[in-house]
Amino acid sequence: MFTGLIAELGRVEDLRREQDSYRLTISAEKIPPLLKMGESVCCNGACLTVTKFDSHQFTVDVMPETARRTTIGSLKKGDRINLERTLHVGDGLDGHIVSGHVDGVGTITRIRPEGIARVTTISCAPELLRHMVEKGSIAIDGISLTITEVTDTTFSVSLIPLTVQWTTLGFKKTGDKVNLETDILGKYVERMLEKKPTGGLTRETLFENGFF
What are the tens digits of pLDDT across the range 105-123? Predict the structure, then answer.
């Protein structure tokens, strides 16, 4: 589990395509010395497992499902990438709950200044938009952000200067693709409502939905 607060910007050193997957090597300053084998790292919003590392870089394997669902497979050498280690007991939850399981890819359709902020508008599939609400949370390339507007085809977020400076959204442009993860709490609520229990609120329905 992650918070959506980016620890640092890494750099893609190698993206090697194998038979049905990719092997991604990333260099960074802060994160590699802290890693252990098998640890998860959120890379542009995708939770990936460390298979090799030293003090300057680390390697992760990318499954076919991850390549299909995310922009990871289109990365190239020299690209910058948002990085975050997993949330540990005692850490503050300053962003929101991010699983690192990307729901789909969106496209930046507009970028405009608004005072000190940079308002970014993104189009995406209807099945993602239905999980978004104004003032709700969204992870874009792993960055925890607050939704400022939702339409039938797009949503918008407002970036503070620090986000522009410290993350990949600072140099994204119109037409670029981004990984999206909608709020996990909203997805669970929707799933629970789909069950529509007919017998009223019982001990059994509470147990089935994780309240016991």
Answer: 999 999 999 999 999 999 9
Confidence category of residue 147, pLDDT binned at 50, 70, 90: very high
User: What's the farthest any 2 CA atoms get from each other in the chain?
Assistant: 58
Structure tokens given for 24: 């991604």
**193 membership: H or E segment, kind and range:** helix 184-195
What's the predicted TM-score (pTM) here? 0.88
Secondary structure class of 211 (helix, strand, coil)? coil
Query: Burial, 190: exposed, middle or buried (Cβ in 10 Å; 0-12, 13-18, 19+)?
Result: exposed
Q: Which residues contact 161 (CB under 8 A, 6 or more apart)?
A: 116, 117
Q: 142 — alpha (psi -120 to 50), left (phi > 0) or beta?
A: left
**Residue 43 CB contacts under 8 Å (≥ 6 apart), including other chains:** 10, 24, 26, 60, 72, 81, 82, 83, 142
Please, what is the end-to-end C-alpha distance for the chain in angstroms? Answer: 22
